[in-house]
Amino acid sequence: MTALEYAKIEREQSLNELKEFLSLPTISTLSEHRADVQRGAEWVADNLRAMGMEHVEIMPTAEGRGQPLVYADWLHADGAPTVLVYGHFDVQPVDPLHEWLTPPFEPTIIGETIYARGASDMKSQTHAFMKALEALLKTDSLRVNVKVIAEGEEEIGSPNLAPFLRAHKEKLKCDVALNADSQMVARELPSIVYGLRGLAYFELTVYGAAQDLHSGLFGGAIHNPVQVLCELIAGMHDAAGRITLPNFYEDVRVLTAEERVELARYPRTEQQWVDMTGVRELYGEKGFSTVERTGARPTLEVNGFLAGFTGEGAKTVLPAKAMAKISTRLVPYQRPEKVHAQLSAYLEQHAPSTVRWELQTRGGSNEAVLLNRASRYVNAAADALQETFGVAPVFQLLGWSVPVTNMLNDELGVDVVVMGFGLPDDGMHGPNEHFYLPNYYRGVESYVRFFQNVAKE
Amino acid sequence: MTALEYAKIEREQSLNELKEFLSLPTISTLSEHRADVQRGAEWVADNLRAMGMEHVEIMPTAEGRGQPLVYADWLHADGAPTVLVYGHFDVQPVDPLHEWLTPPFEPTIIGETIYARGASDMKSQTHAFMKALEALLKTDSLRVNVKVIAEGEEEIGSPNLAPFLRAHKEKLKCDVALNADSQMVARELPSIVYGLRGLAYFELTVYGAAQDLHSGLFGGAIHNPVQVLCELIAGMHDAAGRITLPNFYEDVRVLTAEERVELARYPRTEQQWVDMTGVRELYGEKGFSTVERTGARPTLEVNGFLAGFTGEGAKTVLPAKAMAKISTRLVPYQRPEKVHAQLSAYLEQHAPSTVRWELQTRGGSNEAVLLNRASRYVNAAADALQETFGVAPVFQLLGWSVPVTNMLNDELGVDVVVMGFGLPDDGMHGPNEHFYLPNYYRGVESYVRFFQNVAKE
To answer: Which of A372, A296, A295, A356 is nearest to A322 (CA)?
Structure first.
C-alpha cells in the first residue's frame, strides 16, 4: 500500500481525530485555558508518538511561564534532506460567542465544511501534515528526515519562538522549513507564498501651545498643530500615490516581468476588491495592479489620528497637540530603521518652525521576507500541489507579516516553504470559523507528495 | 452733592454691598443652586427698589423653567434718550474647589484685589452700574431714562434671553443698550468693544471602506480616508495663511487705516503673545498683526480630529472613516450659511471620488457684530472713560462671540455700547477669580459719567 492509498483509506479515522483535536479549547491568550493548551500539547505529542515519530517531547518555553511546544523527529533517511515542519495547536478566543451558529468547540460538519474554532487557523493543517507523516511512516515510505515543532502560542504572537529557535539551533538543524500556516487563494487554486511585507510603525506627535487654547482668543495667533500634522501627512504622498519620504524607494525590490505575469493569475477582479472593501473606487500607486500594490509595493498608512475635541457637539478649542499613528508596509530590501530615518528626514525638511514634533516607533517592526522561489524545495511543493489539485499553484506575495516565517527564515537560515490550505473567507479569528474538508484531504495528499518529492529531487 | 461726590462718599458701603452680592452662590447651571439664583434676583431687585428704580419685577423665563430675570426702569427724563442697561447676576461653578486659596463665596480682599466667584464675571460690574444709578437717583441728577435687565442665566448661554427680548419688545424699547459684561485691555487702559467675531462650526466626516480593514491585506488597494481628510484640511489654507474656500474673503470687512492705527494701541507685544500661549513662534495670515488676526480677520481652525486606532501601542488598521471638527471665526458681513456653502463647494471641488463625505453644522453659529463706533452713545462712553482714567479708551475688536451683544443688537435694533472693567487675567471661570478694586470704583464713576454724557450730547 502506498502512503497516498493509506491516507485515502484513513479518511474517516482522520476526520474523527480532527474533530477530537478541534474540540480542545486551546485558547492561548486566556489563563483559564492554560490546562487546555497543555492538553493540546499532549494530544499532539501522543499522536506523533503513536505514528512512530521519535524523541517526542513537550518542551516548556520561557522557563515554564510560556505555553508548551511539542518537538518530535524521525531521522532515519541517511543522506536525505531534513525538513522541519512548523504548525501550531493554539487558537483564538471565541467571543462574540452569541454570533456562533454552532458551539465553537463542538466541531460540526455542514455539507463539506467543518465549523469549529481553529478549523482554519490552523488545526486542520497541523493535523493534515501529521496525517501525511503517519501515512508515510505506516507504509514505511518516509525517505526524508523530519523534525516537527508544534507551537502553543502563535495566537499571542509567538513571543518565545525566536528565543526557542536560537536556544535549540543544533537540535532544529534542517535543510528546509515548511510553514503549514497559510492559505490558498481560492478553493481550487493552491498557492505558495514566497514573500511577505514587513512593517515599521510610528507615532508622530506635533506640539503647539502649552495647553489647549480658546479659538476665539487665539485663533489667528498661532499655528494649529492639527493643521500642521494634516499638512505633513498630506505631503507624504504625491499625486501619483507615491510616498515622498526622501529615498524611500531606493531599496525597494523591483518585480520581474515573470513575477508580474504570475501575480496577475491571482483570481480577484477589481470589482471583487471593491465589493470586499465597500469603497467607492480602488486607489493606489499609479502603474501597479491592486495585487501588486497590496503585496509587492510599500505603502504608508495613517492608522489613527487624535487631536482636540472629538465628542458630540461643538467646542471651540485650539488643540495643544495632535497625534497620528503612521505605519509603512515594507517590501524586500527596505529596512525599518532606515524608514524611520527617512521619516525623520522628511519631518526635518517639512515641519514648520512654529511647532515641535516627536517621532517614536511603536510595536514590533520587521523586515519583509523574500523566500527563494526557485529552490528545489519550493519546486517539490509546487509539484505536489499541481499533482494534487491538477493546477499549478499561484506564487503569492502576501501584504502582511507572518512573524513565524521571518523567525524560521532568520533563525534557522534555511529556505522556508509556505504552503497551507485555508481560504481567505474561512472566518479566521471571527465567529463560525470553518474549513473546506475536501482541501483537508487534499492537504494531507499534498504534504505526502511534498515529502516524497523532496526525497526524489 | 454731585453724583460723583455721592459715589465717592459711598465707597465703603458699596464694597460691603458688593461682598454681600458676591457671597450669594448664584450658580445657574447647578439645579441645587436654583434657590440661590432666586435669592440673587431678589437681592438685585431689592437693591434697585431701594435706590428709587421703579416697576421692579422679577420675571420668570421659559414659563418658570428658566432662571429669573430682573427688570426695573426709571422713565422720568422726558425727551431724553432711554438707555437699557444689561448685566447678569449668575456665576460659573467653582470646581476645582481645592485650587481656590480662599472660599469662593466668602469674598476676601488681599491688597487691592477682591477674590470671589463672580468678582470679574460679572457681579462687580453689575453692581457698579447699580451704584452709578443710585448715585444719580439719590442726588436727583439722573437726566436720561433708564431700563435695567439683570439676567440669571448668562453662564449657561442665555438660552431664554432672545425670546425674552422678542416677547417684551415694547417694554424694552430704548435708544441704546449698554452691555457691562466686558473687559479692559490693561489695568490703566480702558476699552470699548465695537466688534465681535462670529462663528460657524462644522463636523466633516470622510468615509472609505465599509468597516476598518487590515492594513496588511488592503494597504495599497484603497484610499485611506484619514489621508483624504488630511489632504482636504491641508488644502484649506495657502502658503500665506489665507483660507482657500471659494469666495471666502468676498464679504470680509476691510479694516480702515484709522482702525489699524487704533488696533495697534493694544498693549500686548509679540513676545507676550508667545509667553501666554507657549508656542515656539506666532503664526497667521500674512500682512496682518496678531491683534488684527485674532480680532479683525476670519480664521479656520481644526478643533478636533478622530480616526482609527488612537490607544497605546500599535494596531495596523485602515480606518473606515475620519472625522474633523472644523470651525471658522467670522468677521462682519460674513454669514455662517454662506460659509457652509463655501466649505461644501470646496469639498465638492477637492474631495476625491474614492471617498464619500458628509458635512454637518454643529452648535450655534452666529454672525459677527459690528457696532457703530461713531454713535453719540459710544462717544459718551469714550468721554466717560477718558475723564475717569485720564486716557482715551482703546477701541477693541474681540475675537470671540458674546451672544448677549448679538441679541441686544439684533432683537432691540439699537446701538450697543460694550464697556466693562474686568481684566484678561482675572481668572474668569477658573479658581481664584478676582477683581481689581480700584477699577470697581472707577467703573461706578465711568457709568455715572456715561449717563451724564448721554444726557448732555
So the answer is: A356
Q: Is residue B86 part of a domain?
A: yes
Cis upstream peptide for B122 (omega within 30°): yes
* A333-347 burial code (b ≥16 CB/10 A, e <16): ebebebbbebbeebb
Instruction: Give the structural domain span for A91.
Output: 3-196+368-456
Measured between alpha carbons, how far is B192 from B190 in angstroms, rounded to an integer? 7
Looking at residue A219, its amino acid is: G
- Identify whether the C-beta of residue B317 lies closer than 8 Å to the C-beta of residue A324: no
Q: Is B23 exposed, middle or buried (0-12, 13-18, 19+ CB in 10 A)?
A: middle
Q: How many domains does chain B have?
A: 2
Instruction: Note whether B140 and B381 are within 8 A (CB).
Output: no
Q: Are A187 and A394 in contact (CB under 8 A)?
A: no
Contact B365, B228 (CB under 8 A): no
List all residues of chain B from 297 to 336 with a beta carbon under 8 Å from chain A.
Answer: 297, 299, 301-310, 313-319, 322-325, 327, 329
In angstroms, the CA B350 to CA B327 distance is: 18
As a whole number of angstroms, the longest Cα–Cα distance in chain B is 88
- Residue A457: what pLDDT? 64
Tell me, yes or no, whether A314 lies in a domain.
yes
Report residue A235: phi and psi, to 5°: -80, -5
* Together in a domain, B189 and B202: no
Give the residue carrying C-alpha cell 468678582: B119
With a cut of 70, say whether residue A267 has pLDDT above it.
yes
Strand partners, B417: B178
Assessment of whether the complete model's pTM goes beyond 0.80: yes
**Phi, psi (degrees; rounded to nearest 5) at B253:** -70, 135
Q: Which long-range contacts (CB under 8 A, 24 or more apart) does B107-114 make?
A: B107/B18, B107/B19, B107/B22, B107/B23, B109/B437, B112/B436, B112/B437, B112/B438, B113/B434, B113/B435, B113/B436, B113/B437, B114/B18, B114/B19, B114/B22, B114/B434, B114/B435, B114/B437, B114/B440
Confirm or reject contact between A293 and chain B (CB < 8 A): yes
Q: Which of residues 98-157 of A touch B (CB under 8 A)?
A: none
B215 touching chain A per CB within 8 A: yes
Asked if residue A443 and residue A352 are part of one domain, the reply reads: no
Q: Which residue has the cell 466688534?
A: B195
CB contact under 8 A, B308 and A307: no
pLDDT band at A427; cut points 50, 70, 90: confident
The interface predicted TM-score of the complex, written ipTM, equals: 0.89
> What is the least distance, in Å, from the CA of A247 to any CA of chain B?
19
Percent of chain A at pLDDT exceeding 70: 100
A303–B215 CB contact, under 8 Å: yes
**How would you class A7 by CB atoms within 10 Å of its CB: exposed for 0-12, middle for 13-18, buried for 19 or more?**
buried
How many of the other CB atoms lie within 10 Å of CB of B438? 13
Query: Does residue B120 contact residue B434 with C-beta atoms inside 8 Å?
Result: yes
Residue B270 falls within a domain, yes or no?
Answer: no
Q: What confidence score (pLDDT) does residue A430 get?
A: 87
Same-domain check for residues A189 and A214: no
Instruction: Return residues 387-446 of A near B (CB < 8 Å).
Output: 398-401
Q: Which residue has the cell 457698579?
A: B128
Pair B225, B356 in one domain? yes
How large a percentage of chain A has pLDDT more than 90?
A: 90
Judge: B305–A302 Cβ closer than 8 Å, yes or no: no
Q: How far apart are CA B37 and CA B24, in angstroms?
A: 8
Residues of A in contact with B299 (CB under 8 A): 215, 219-220
Range in A110-114, A375-379, A381-385, B425-429 with the lowest mean pLDDT: B425-429
Q: What would the pLDDT profile of B358-384 be if each residue is shown by its tens digit?
A: 999 998 788 999 999 989 999 999 999
- Check B398 against A303: CB less than 8 A apart: no
